[in-house]
């Protein structure tokens, strides 16, 4: 049987799709490369904002004709939206064959094989101990790999649905993570992104996140380690020191602020003040002057006044983030805010605030990226442009995506690029020289593994 997985949402879901594909292939399933080829289509879903769910529901509607054309075709919905909507999804969409939450992926091979006609399977239980030990992910061959080191979240920010669909925090044992990264390094992956909902709360015995980051960076063959997303609470000096001093750790931190108003942060139950957040930014920039910082912001959360909003806007201007993910508050059932607070900022005000901060951030990003024109930067080559295979795509040490004519460079190489132009999201330049050869994956290795990306969300 051939399976196609479409991924929606954050990087954690991308990593989960690779995990699901690994679990299924270990059980004898194969990857489908097109919808027509697929016997099973799995949507790995996001629930973080209403828009994300609406998009996936739209996609499900579009899949109905495929089911008519191919009797026996199975459609499964897994991930955060699956856990969120559960039975309701089956009631409203009887053509969905199975629904599985984030802790139920081990059971997917059995669910698919034993599926009876006209009876949907619903697996949405939490499993507080599930970290998928012993399961191997099926990754597309290449340079970059996601490695989940943590599942769930213990923070319960009031706006957020994540703890209610992904459950409590669980950390993957450090020895398993190290073994996994060593294996990846042998396979030619040299850029690793460690993933967790509050990744810096990771702990295994006396191994803190900072220690783990250092250990991963020391593994032979690993050139660059990134991580996402840390929480400002518990962003330790030890972690700042590793980021500043370890050459293999990216000089980049995604540090979600959400709001710069302390009363909003309190209502959001973020567990830090704006001043405490700024102190981390200050230390990061002091100890590591080349650091790039990005953030997440929510405008229009319950009770947000014009004054609260102005504080957030000013923080965006003052902090000069390399980029930012900016969102209008979207009420999510199950969340604390949905149960206990009033979503009282009018939709048009939310949208107005959102448009304004997007515009501001776009200008700042453009200025920052354009200020690099003329500089010679070190870039790790991660692959080729999908539109033009003559163009190589990589990232600078501070995680700025850079495009250039590939010349004699190959994926995995560190190269020197002279920056010639910039947008608010990418740098374009000229390959000056290859600085250090990597181990390039062959064309055959780069074949599609049957996982495609839905639109990004989260
Ligand atoms: N509405 C809007 N944005 C949200 N986020 C999380 N929950 C919501 C919500 N209900 C944003 C936060 C988080 C990012 C992943 O998504 O900024 O950091
Ligand atoms: Fe956890 Fe808060 Fe992040 Fe949601 S926003 S995943 S509750 S830390």
Question: Any overview of this molecule?
Answer:
With 458 residues, this protein is an alpha/beta fold. It has three domains: 2-124, 3-Layer(aba) Sandwich (Rossmann fold), CATH 3.40.50.12160; 144-366, tm_1862 like domain (pyruvate-formate lyase- activating enzyme), CATH 3.80.30; 376-437, Beta Barrel (OB fold (Dihydrolipoamide Acetyltransferase, E2P)). The protein is 33% helix and 25% strand. The protein is built from 14 helices and 22 strands. The strands form six sheets. Strands 1, 2, 3, 4, 5, 6 and 22 form a seven-stranded parallel β-sheet that branches. A five-stranded mixed β-barrel has the order 17-18-19-21-20. A hairpin with a 4-residue loop joins strand 18 and strand 19 (401-405). Helix 8 packs parallel to helix 9 and helix 12 (306-319) packs parallel to helix 14 (347-370). The chain is globular, with a radius of gyration of 22 Å. The structure holds 5'-deoxyadenosine (5AD) and iron/sulfur cluster. Iron/sulfur cluster binds next to helix 6. Residues 48-49, 159-160, 256, 258, 296, 298, 327, 329-330, 332, 458 line the site of 5'-deoxyadenosine (5AD).
């Amino acid at each position: 049987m051939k399976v196609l997985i479409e991924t929606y949402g954050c990087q954690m879901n991308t990593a989960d799709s690779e995990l699901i594909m690994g679990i299924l292939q270990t059980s004898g399933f194969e990857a489908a490369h097109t919808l027509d080829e697929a016997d099973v289509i799995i949507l790995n879903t996001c629930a973080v904002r209403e828009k994300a769910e609406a998009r996936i529901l739209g996609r499900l509607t579009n899949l109905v004709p495929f089911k008519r054309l191919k009797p026996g075709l199975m459609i499964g919905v897994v991930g955060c939206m699956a856990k969120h909507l559960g039975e309701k999804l089956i009631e409203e969409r009887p053509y969905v064959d199975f629904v599985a939450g984030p802790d139920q992926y081990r059971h997917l091979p059995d669910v698919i094989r034993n599926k009876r006609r006209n009876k949907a399977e619903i697996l949405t239980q939490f499993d507080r101990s599930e970290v998928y030990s012993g399961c191997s992910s099926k990754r597309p061959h290449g340079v970059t790999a996601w490695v989940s080191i943590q599942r769930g979240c213990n923070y319960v920010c009031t706006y957020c649905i994540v703890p209610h669909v992904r459950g409590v925090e669980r950390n993957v044992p450090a020895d398993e993570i190290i073994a996994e990264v060593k294996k990846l390094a042998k396979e030619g992956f040299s850029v690793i992104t460690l993933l967790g909902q509050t990744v810096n709360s990771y702990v295994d015995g006396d191994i803190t996140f900072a220690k783990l980051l250092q250990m991963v960076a020391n593994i032979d063959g690993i050139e660059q380690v990134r991580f996402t997303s840390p929480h400002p609470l518990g962003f330790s000096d030890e972690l700042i020191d590793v980021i500043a001093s370890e050459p293999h750790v990216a000089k980049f931190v995604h540090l979600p602020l959400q709001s710069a108003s302390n009363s909003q942060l309190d209502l959001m139950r973020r567990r830090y003040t704006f001043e405490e957040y700024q102190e981390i930014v200050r230390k990061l920039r002091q100890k590591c002057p080349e650091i790039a910082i990005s953030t997440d912001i929510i405008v229009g959360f319950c009770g947000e006044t014009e004054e609260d909003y102005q504080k957030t806007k000013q923080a965006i201007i003052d902090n000069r983030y390399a980029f930012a993910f900016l969102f209008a508050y979207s009420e999510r059932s199950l969340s604390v805010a949905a149960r206990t607070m009033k979503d009282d900022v009018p939709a048009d005000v939310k949208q107005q605030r959102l448009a304004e901060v997007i515009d501001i951030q776009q200008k700042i990003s453009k200025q920052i990226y354009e200020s690099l024109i003329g500089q010679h930067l070190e870039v790790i080559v991660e692959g080729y442009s999908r539109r033009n295979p003559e163009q190589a795509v990589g990232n600078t040490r501070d995680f700025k995506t850079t495009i250039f004519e590939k010349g004699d460079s190959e994926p995995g190489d560190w190269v020197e690029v002279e920056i010639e132009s910039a947008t608010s999201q990418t740098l374009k330049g000229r390959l000056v020289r290859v600085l250090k050869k990597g181990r390039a994956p062959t064309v055959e290795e780069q074949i599609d593994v049957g996982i495609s990306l839905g639109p990004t969300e989260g």
